[in-house]
Amino acid sequence: MPLMIVGLILNSVAMLSVCSNDNVGGIFAGVMLFCWAVSVLGLVLVLAGRKVPGAIMVIVGSVAYVPLGLVAVFGAKKILVASKQTVETPA
Prior knowledge:
Elements: H1 2-19, H2 26-47, H3 51-62, H4 69-88
Helix pairs in contact: 1-2, 1-4, 2-3, 3-4
């Protein structure tokens, strides 16, 4: 989870730098803001215990921030793999 949080912080820095630039079109800044919001909502879901849908939302929202977004994608992927192992472990 720490890797995903660091990735979302990096996405936030990238989003702020893009949105604060006057030369960037409004549509592009809006898409970046929407993707960031999806990622943050995914983090909230992961923290609330809904790990699989939250991690998927983080991955989808971080795609717009490649290459910085890959940090969050790798963190979310680790959560998905860990949750899959706990589900498939026979009781």
